[in-house]
Amino acid sequence: MASSNLVLNRYATALYQLAHEHGTTEQVEAELVDLDAVLHDNEGLRAQLGNPRLGRDAKRAVMLQIMGDGVSDLLRRTVMLVVDKGRAGLLPDFAAVFNAVAMKASGRVVAQVTSATPLDDGARLKLREQLARITGKSVSLAESVDESLLGGLRVVIGSAMIDGSLSRRLQLLQAQLLQAPVAGVAGD
């Protein structure tokens, strides 16, 4: 999977650079969202694209039919190149990789924030500002609630995690208590 993402990252980076040069980045992003929805909603289509027995011409025809006339020439040519290079099975992941490339290039990151209770607007704003200061980038929050955290937050940005949850603090405290020497115990 990692090598697949590396391959897709090259195509996504090239597409982003060309779209940026032509001023069509937002259009390409929107088209990829639509294409991604079609690919993810149709398991049979994903199976066809990943089927090594189905020839490239057949895969090209399928993708051209899906894209129709509503897709920019830049995206159409990129998708056809991916198919021609025998990577059609990777297309269902292309939009996500392109989005990551676009966000990185524009200095944006998404922070996956898990809290014990929903964040209020003030906490959300403060968290976004603190994370922006830490990362040096514009931060969007993808929020979820997990009551098992008991309190606090768990934040994941890329491969980095900040776990300030109460449940994690209790785990650390328990580990410290179990390793602490106990004075006055019989046999000492």
Topology at a glance:
Blueprint: H1 2-22, H2 25-41, H3 43-50, H4 56-67, H5 73-84, H6 94-105, E1 108-115, H7 121-135, E2 138-145, E3 153-157, E4 160-163, H8 166-179
Parallel strand pairs: 1-2
Antiparallel strand pairs: 1-3, 3-4
Helix pairs in contact: 1-5, 1-6, 2-6, 4-5
Can you give a write-up of this model?
- Helices cover 59% and strands 13% of the residues.
- A four-stranded mixed sheet has the order 2-1-3-4, with helices on both faces.
- The chain has two domains: 2-103, Orthogonal Bundle (Peroxidase, domain 1), CATH 1.10.520; 107-179, Glutaredoxin (3-Layer(aba) Sandwich).
- It is of the alpha+beta class and 188 residues long.
Summarize the structure.
This protein is α+β, with helices and mostly antiparallel strands and 188 residues long.
Query: What is the string of SSEs from the N terminus onward?
Result: HHHHHHEHEEEH
CATH topology tier name of the largest domain: Peroxidase, domain 1
CATH architecture of the largest domain: Orthogonal Bundle
Mean pLDDT: 90
Q: Sheet with the most strands? A: 4 strands, mixed
N→C terminal distance: 55 Å
CATH homology group of the largest domain: N-terminal domain of the delta subunit of the F1F0-ATP synthase
Number of strands: 4
List keywords for this structure.
Peroxidase, domain 1; four-stranded mixed sheet; 8 helices; 188 residues; 2 domains; Glutaredoxin; alpha+beta
